[in-house]
Amino acid sequence: MGFYEGTGAAARSGAGAGASGAGAGASGQGGPGGPRPSLWQEEPVARRRLPDPVRESAVRAVLIVAVTLTGATIAFFLTLTGSWLAFPMVLVSIAGTVVATWAVLDVLITRQMWNQRYGVVSEPSSTARSSRREARRVRREARAAERIPRPGRPPAAWPSAAGDSRYGAPGRG
Questions:
Q1: Concatenated DSSP letters for the chain?
Q2: Tens-digit pLDDT profile for residues 94-115
Q3: Distance (Å) of CA 136 to CA 115, 116, 149
Q4: What is the DSSP code string of 70-118?
Q5: Do 93 and 72 touch, CB atoms closer than 8 A?
Q6: Helical packing angle, 52-81 and 86-118, nearest 10°
Q7: What angle do CA 18, 23, 24 make, to 5 degrees?
Q8: Of 10, 12, 29, 49, which one has the fewest beta carbons inside 10 Å?
């Protein structure tokens, strides 16, 4: 059984591996089970896509590391053959190693910077959030206890707008 046999509609309908056998003609039909499954299969992604700045620095780092490794390999073979180009290529490889190290560090720094700016995960089950909520509740209760109630008004958080002419009291015209 091939890789894509048994992954399409024929496999789901129960036709099995026999659906893509001798009955498959030039018409694109996979036999009695229906059309042949497409080669493009959508699969769920295990991880989210990297942010654009991080992905750009990662691609740059991979290209720089690839060029550096290629240069180091060429320098190695030139050294084995005793060519006069071996010494300049070794110097270029050393410089490339420094640049490649910087490029990999740039990926790590860019990723950390992105996480610090945009990667805050705030979940209701977070212990930090519940402790902040508790601290706010304690501060609110302390402020409410310090308030001096005014005579003639109930100790409400906001005064009633019923008697205030600014809030559409009757008689305005």
A1: --SSTTSSHHHHHT-GGGGGSTT--TTSB-STT-BPPPS------SSPPPPHHHHHHHHHHHHHHHHHHHHHHHHHHHHHHT-TTHHHHHHHHHHHHHHHHHHHHHHHHHHHHHHHHH-----TT-HHHHHHHHHHHHHHHHHHHHPPPPTTS---SS--STT-GGGT-TT--
A2: 999 999 999 999 999 999 999 8
A3: 27, 25, 22
A4: HHHHHHHHHHHHT-TTHHHHHHHHHHHHHHHHHHHHHHHHHHHHHHHHH
A5: yes
A6: 160
A7: 100
A8: 49
The answer to whether the beta carbons of residues 96 and 64 sit under 8 Å apart is yes
Q: Is the pLDDT of residue 45 over 90?
A: no
Residue 86 is encoded by which pair of tokens?
């071996």
Q: What does pTM read for this prediction? A: 0.47
Which position has the token pair 């958080």? 157
Residue count (the chain): 173
